[in-house]
Write a structure and sequence with these properties.
plasmid; 4-stranded antiparallel sheet; disordered N terminus; elongated; transmembrane helix; transmembrane; ABC transporter transmembrane region fold; peptide transmembrane transporter activity; alpha/beta; 6-stranded mixed sheet
């Protein structure tokens, strides 16, 4: 058994919040570069403070500045330049690496999650964290060098003020502390607004998806389009805008408040007689120089805090969305060949599964189901809409976990840790299938024999009358700009090439014209059965029931009838005669 590998470890640690765990995991891979970048930022801050100290000393000297001070100033300037460039380059790389790692992390978690969780959560929250939230986290690494450098300069200037005058330094600290208290109140409101903006953005991504998915319906109904774009979509856009306005306005007020207090500090330092500043013009000039030099990095430090908080909120959102997918399961090593996947019987014993039935707005349960399948067998599953056919197919293929009962292969139960390997036995084309842009998992792009695989794929493409539309070149489709029926035929080509022991087709022929239905039912399905495959077909095409070995009928999630062998055709004719459809 092997565990799913994640890009980084986010296992819980004592006393660490989820966002803290995730950022530490992000930095773990690049801790060397991160450490060098931080050291460069600190050195930049030290060099900057030494620059102002040297300049202050040169300006306050009654004599002309000597060459030693000039060389010291030049050296500090060079060090400041080099450290700023080094830290900027390293943090830029860390920013993009972090975004890539986050997206890889999210993609892997979604790919490893149970299908029921993927369907329940939907794409909108994941798209939100992959775009806006991942960008916010990556921007943290653009803000970090400014935060560290500006913070180093501010603390260095405070230390220099303390060396010049303790009363002035205490006054500056009082201004910072008082301003920070006011800033903190606005910061709490800003974070709440950023979290609300994230929730609104999830809705926005859902509506943006509907804008494309429902394009036909919107264009056919002007009032519907107007109500959707100006109403639901417009409201979501406005919510995100308003929440972010409030957040960044709160930060702007906080920054302005602290800068105002520093102006108050400057006035007190210059005009408060008890400090003794006015008695020494040179000292006053020194305070002013240090203060003015500190004002710009202080402003930069405060203006980068919103980026830091936005990243913190986004990290929390990413962890929350990932937690909704549940913990990663331990997967068995995938089956590497059809020989390894061979079986004698596949049995469902007392299997049940419940889900919310949207049409009736109630919980719907399939089962208990007791079925058995064997190699070289062709089985049809029939029933009305909403009878549970597709859900049964998903449970059978291991995409849904049985709530009660068990699935057995040759008498051995399929456990939760073995379900991933069990799924590898199936090839399926569901009614809501997705067609990837090539033969992924079938043809290795680096395999020297891919030309032969391409030829086999193109032969199947020609057999399904798609060769005038699409070609398989180096394992990739030349186009996917096809009708739904044509894309289903191409999906059938992919399924045919996978060559697994069990095949499942969910309403495959529903979008096909009669000629291709005949090819599917009368040629391809019998060929698969002749090759020893177990073929399960969800269908409404009673015209072809006679080719099946068994026809299973579902009603309200239960198998209510099973017709076998030669009785299939007879039952079909009898039913048709009773309905007056055959002579």
């Amino acid at each position: 058994m092997t565990a799913i590998h994640e890009p980084f470890d986010t296992s819980p640690a004592s006393g660490q919040k989820p966002a803290t765990r995730l950022i530490l995991a992000l930095l773990k891979r690049s801790r060397g570069a991160f450490s060098v970048a931080l050291v460069a930022c600190v050195l930049n801050g030290i060099a900057s403070v030494m620059l102002v100290a040297t300049l202050n000393r040169a300006l306050s000297s009654t004599a002309s500045a000597d060459s030693a001070l000039a060389w010291r100033f030049a050296l500090c300037a060079v060090v400041a330049l080099i450290t700023r460039v080094v830290s900027g380059v390293l943090f830029a790389r860390l920013s993009q690496d972090t975004m890539a790692q986050l997206r890889e992390h999210v993609a892997r978690r979604v790919a490893a999650a149970e299908l029921r969780d993927v369907e329940r959560i939907g794409a909108a929250p994941v798209q939100s964290v992959l775009t806006d939230d991942a960008t916010n986290v990556s921007m943290l690494f653009f803000a970090l060098p400014n935060i560290v450098m500006h913070g180093s300069i501010v603390f260095g200037c405070l230390g220099y003020l303390a060396w010049l005058s303790w009363p002035v330094c205490v006054l500056a600290l009082a201004a910072i502390i008082t301003g920070s208290l006011g800033y903190h109140l606005g910061d709490r409101r800003a974070i709440a607004s950023l979290e609300a903006a994230g929730q609104s953005q999830d809705k926005l991504f859902g509506y943006l998806g509907a804008l494309f998915a429902g394009a036909k319906e919107l264009k056919l109904h002007r009032v519907r389009s107007q109500q959707f774009v100006d109403g639901q979509l417009g409201a979501a856009i406005g919510e995100v805008r308003d929440h972010r306005r409030r957040a960044f306005s709160a930060y702007a007020v906080g920054v302005g408040w602290i800068i105002f207090l520093f102006y108050g500090f400057l006035g007190a330092a210059a005009f408060w007689p008890s400090l003794g500043v006015r008695a020494d013009t040179g000292a006053t000039a020194g305070y002013v120089v240090v203060f003015l030099f500190m004002l710009v990095p202080l402003d930069g430090l405060l203006n980068n805090i919103p980026t830091l908080n936005a990243a913190r909120v986004s990290l929390g959102r990413i962890e929350k969305v990932m937690a909704e997918f549940g913990s990663l399961r331990v997967q068995a090593t995938p089956i590497s060949s059809t020989h390894d996947a061979s079986f004698e019987t596949l049995t469902m014993r007392g299997v049940t599964h419940s889900y919310f039935h949207e049409r009736d707005e109630r919980m719907f349960r399939i089962g208990p189901v007791d079925l058995s399948f064997a190699p070289g067998e062709l089985v049809f599953i029939v029933g009305g809409n909403g009878s549970g056919k597709t859900t049964l197919a998903k449970v059978l293929t291991g995409l849904y976990e049985p709530e009660t009962g068990v699935i057995e292969v040759d008498g051995k139960p399929v456990t939760a840790s073995e379900r991933a390997a069990y799924r590898e036995r199936f090839t399926a084309v569901f009614n809501d299938f997705h067609l990837f842009d090539g033969l992924l998992g079938i043809i290795d792009p680096n395999d020297a024999s891919r030309a032969a695989a391409d030829a086999r794929a193109n032969a199947l493409v020609a057999r399904l009358a798609l060769d005038h539309k699409v070609k398989v070149i180096d394992g990739a489709f030349s186009t996917r700009e096809l009708s739904t029926g044509q894309r289903k035929r191409l999906a059938l080509v992919v399924a045919y090439l996978e060559d697994r022991p069990l095949y499942l087709f969910d309403e495959w022929a529903a979008d096909q014209d009669p000629a291709f239905k005949a090819v599917f039912y009368e040629q391809l399905l019998p060929e698969l059965r002749a090759r020893g495959k177990t073929v399960i077909v969800v269908t409404h095409d009673d015209r072809y029931f006679s080719i099946a070995d068994r026809v299973l009928k579902l009603e309200n999630g239960m198998v209510v009838n099973e017709t076998r062998g030669g009785g299939v055709r007879a039952a079909t004719i009898a039913q048709a005669q009773a309905n007056g459809t055959m002579g």
